[in-house]
Design goal:
It is built from ten helices and 14 strands. With 255 residues, the chain is an alpha/beta fold.
């Protein structure tokens, strides 16, 4: 039986692991490889690593970093950042990465999703949609380049388009909720769940296991991802990497 996945999301900035709040003010929280080692020990379901510099600075993926992460990682690994071609995606998968995440490149050229799916398989293609709620509206805008560029697309219509083109998974990331630890945007999650039939992962806002359980109750079998929740502890946000125990996860899934 399928069950929800819980995936830590690591943001890499200038070679270090950082956390942001609403995509701003990156705070250094440690070394990515050390974080991977800890998540190995805690038997995380999957790991998402996003290089937030690559696309923003228009540079190629850091293949040496990806190789190092893949060699250390003992769980399925999804990497995103700077991927613009099917050849790059194929090279990354060849380094031991299970899924390649696209964002700006897929929005600028949706046909790229099909090209990469043909090259590495649909199941290995994820598309990250960074969304922000419009003022005084239930609607959302789709952003790229770390929330700096408005793509002027409805994210849910675009999700349907890229799912038809071959995206095997869609990651919905809320800019408004990023780093706030106040809960997921459940309205956006439900709208995405109704829009597409492919697997989805919701990112942005988790600050407690209850937030994940609320997501599963609202949307059923989906992926729940988080960054701050897995690296910060207590009201002063001391850096301490954590992950739910098997018993905690079993309790979450009984929804």
């Amino acid at each position: 039986m399928l069950r929800p996945r819980i995936s830590p999301c690591l943001l890499v900035h200038q070679g270090g692991l950082v956390k942001t709040v609403r995509f701003k003010s990156p705070k250094y929280v440690g070394d990515p490889i050390n974080a991977v080692k800890i998540f190995n020990e805690k038997e995380a379901d999957e790991l998402i690593v996003l290089d937030i510099d690559a696309s923003a600075n228009d540079v190629e993926p850091d293949y040496q970093m990806i190789r190092n992460l893949a060699l250390e990682c003992r769980m399925p690994l999804c990497y995103g950042g700077g991927v613009k071609t099917a050849e790059q995606a194929s090279r990354i998968v060849g380094l031991g990465v299970e899924k390649v995440a696209l964002s700006a490149a897929a929005i600028e050229n949706p046909a790229l999703v099909s090209e990469i799916a043909e090259q590495i398989g649909r199941q290995s293609v994820a598309v990250v949609l960074d969304i922000k709620k419009k003022s005084f509206s239930r609607n959302y805008d789709l952003y790229t380049h770390n929330g700096k560029r408005n793509a002027k697309r409805d994210p849910f219509e675009f999700a349907r388009e890229i799912a038809a083109l071959g995206a095997g998974e869609i990651v919905l990331n809320s800019i408004d909720q990023d780093g706030e630890m106040s809960g997921y945007d459940l309205d956006a999650a439900e709208r995405l769940r109704k829009a597409v039939d492919v697997p989805i992962t919701i990112l942005g806002g988790a600050g407690a296991l209850d937030h994940m359980q609320q997501l599963f109750r609202k949307c059923g079998v989906v992926g729940a991802s988080a960054g701050s929740f897995f690296v910060f502890k207590g009201p002063y946000k001391a850096v301490l990497i954590t992950y739910p125990t098997m018993q905690q996860k079993d309790a979450l899934f009984h929804v």
